[in-house]
User: What shape does this take?
Amino acid sequence: ETGVTQTPRHLVMGMTNKKSLKCEQHLGHNAMYWYKQSAKKPLELMFVYNFKEQTENNSVPSRFSPECPNSSHLFLHLHTLQPEDSALYLCASSQVVPSGHSYNEQFFGPGTRLTVL
Amino acid sequence: DQQVKQNSPSLSVQEGRISILNCDYTNSMFDYFLWYKKYPAEGPTFLISISSIKDKNEDGRFTVFLNKSAKHLSLHIVPSQPGDSAVYFCAASQYNFNKFYFGSGTKLNVKP
Assistant: This one.
């Protein structure tokens, strides 16, 4: 595997289900991100992990719970979602310097298309 | 409040002609800008970037122009090819923050 992979690619879930999205990066990066893309809207940053530590939670509802067990893996745990949470969820990674900032671009996975019924 | 805006949701261009995609931003602290390209069923892929110390960066058929006073950047593709048909996102960042702000994208259609 190369680059950034995401599983599953498609997910349909009911509002009472619990599911998890998985992201893995094979680039040796030390920062990972979750984005949400709704139709005709900008990518919305949800969470940032630098060196496995969460450094950003962009006012995301608690029904979304991220987990970063190591610098290569990132999960997004989903619980009691709403239909308006249906969107494309994108994972990305980048290499940052220890101070936390970087001019390096982010590499994206293909996304998980989530539908909440 | 959206800090990066792409006001044209779509653009159609004839093959061989120039494609110009535009992006405006509101935060004068942004000092690094990127363009990403996205095909259906794939994640965005990095295309080209520019830092605020420059006003132009060129890479093959792709050139990004930055006008800091107008808070505007544009991506020029010349000559346009059918394979360039995709959604293009611009993004902006501040050097001190590991966070990118994205526009809503412009769908480019290059007609053969």
About this structure: Residues 48 and 56 of chain A are 5 Å apart (CA to CA). The two ends of chain A are 32 Å apart (CA to CA). The mean pLDDT of chain A is 89.
